[in-house]
Amino acid sequence: MEFLTILYFIYTFIAFYILMIYVLTYIQNKKQIYEIVQPNKILPLSIVIPCFNEEKTIAKNIEAFLSSDYNGLKKIIVVDDCSTDNSYNIIKQCAKKYSQVIALKTPKNTGCAAGAKNFGAKYVTTELIGFSDADSIPSKNAISQMIGFFNDIKTGGVTSRVFVSNPKNFLTRIQAIEYKIIAFTRKLLGFLDSIYVTNGPLSIYRKKAFDQVNGFDAKNMTEDIELTWHLVSKGWKIQMSIPAIVRSSPPTTIKSWFHQRIRWNVGGMQTVAKYRKKILEVGMLGYFIMPFFIMSWFLGLTGLFFLLYRLTRYIIVRYLIIKYSVAAQVALITMQDLSVSPSILFFFGIFLFTVGFAYTITAMSISKEKGFITGHPLRDIFIYSFFYLLMYPPLLIVAFYKYMRGYNTW
Predict the structure, then answer these.
(1) To the nearest 5 percent, what fractions of the chain are helix, strand and coil?
(2) To bridge 144 with a disulfide, which of 70, 118, 188, 286 should be the other Cys (CB 3.0-4.6 Å)?
(3) Last residue of a domain, one of 224, 254, 284
(4) Higher pLDDT, 88 or 344
């Protein structure tokens, strides 16, 4: 058996194994997907919002938190990271108007969200501390549907479900699909105590746990992933509330999308490098989260390799056949070329795609938005499954190159 065939079988087995983990976890826990845990008591909470040049959205973000139905929300601490637009003036106006709002400004631009978050966290004295991006809008009941998970004293963090706010063009519509699949997958991982990231648009932490890990790592480009891994390494649980919805603004251009995804991947590599000695050592972080994280990279790169290999091989073979057939004046196509017995590799490829597409449809169907089954045209879902996902492996290669060169630009 050829080496590439063996590698393909390994790739197929791993991909199928991971898909089956998701499928079986969903079947076992599908009645709990939309679970809402009622809190035993009202826990005091402060929300920290880092802001840099968000004059168009920061007021809406603040007002959304002010309209929250959670009675335990004590303070909304907005940290301007030395914006060059009118953001800080808007924040100060909100602070004058509402007693819950505190306007802060960093002494100098920190250059990253983690810096502004940590600065604001110094002013938090409540039992819980939450963080939100300045361009995100939480639903009125988002916080109240997250707090109940803190009934478990071992819970260190709870994250929300992110939807794309007002998708206007094709790129944002595709990302709307992606965000829903990410949320569904993250919830399934929650049933396995393996959530590997608490999102930036809205996540809440136990202040005791947050202080234990010294807050966010300002040197990491995905501080939310690093914080989650740090909490898990210390024995804290991470939960997710599917009913807690927050809407966020995604990149609207290919350039901004590319920059964001490079940052995400480089940050992930930074996190893996930081915790590499924990693999196969520290509970679910070492035994599942890290191997799962690394394996997803392996699958992406290996899948791209096989695609390029088979495509290149097909083009070269067809070119040579045509070239020498014309030279020899023989038929370009014969009945022997029309094979109706596809290889086992082709069968495995179709099987994996079918299972993966069914998983995508299932993830979309639980989003419970209006529309045909999934809330999105099947055309967009096919484009997402066929083409959008193929952009990830090249991104990963570029991100690895930048990581090796010390890329650290927010």
Answers:
(1) 55, 15, 35
(2) 70
(3) 254
(4) 88
In a domain, 262, yes or no: no
Contacts for 213 with CB less than 8 Å, ≥ 6 apart: 227, 230, 231, 234
Across residues 187-216, what is the average pLDDT?
Answer: 95
Q: Which two tokens stand for residue 219?
A: 């040197």
Tens-digit pLDDT profile for residues 200-213: 999 999 999 999 99
Return the structure tokens found at 212: 């234990």
In the predicted structure, residue 341 carries a pLDDT above the cut 60: no
Same domain flag for 339 and 224:
no
Query: 161-199 burial, b for 16+ CB within 10 Å, e for fewer?
Result: bbbbbebeeebbbbbbbbbbbbbbbbbbbbeeebbbbbb
Q: Are residues 142 and 200 in the same domain?
A: yes
Which residues form the domain of 349? 3-22+299-404
CA–CA distance, 58 with 78 (Å, rounded to integer): 9
Split into its structural domains, the chain has a count of 2
Helix residue ranges, H only, 192-278:
207-212, 223-233, 254-274
Is the same domain home to 142 and 204?
A: yes
Say how far apart CA 158 and CA 146 lie, in whole Å: 6
Task: Give Cβ neighbours of residue 123 (< 8 Å, ≥ 6 apart).
Answer: 46, 75, 77, 102, 104
Q: Which residue has the tokens 């002013």?
A: 123
Which residue's entry shows tokens 């604001």?
A: 120
Q: What is the largest CA-CA distance in the chain?
A: 87
Phi then psi dihedrals of residue 130, to 5 deg: -120, 160
Say if strands 137-138 and 155-164 run parallel, antiparallel, or are unpaired. Answer: unpaired
Percent of the chain whose predicted confidence (pLDDT) is above 70: 86
Burial class (CB in 10 A: 0-12, 13-18, 19+), 395: middle
Question: What does pTM read for this prediction?
Answer: 0.88
Angle formed at CA 393 by CA 267 and CA 360, multiple of 5 degrees: 95
* Nearest by Cα to 105 from 84, 132, 136, 125: 84
Parallel/antiparallel/unpaired status of strands 101-105 and 73-80: parallel
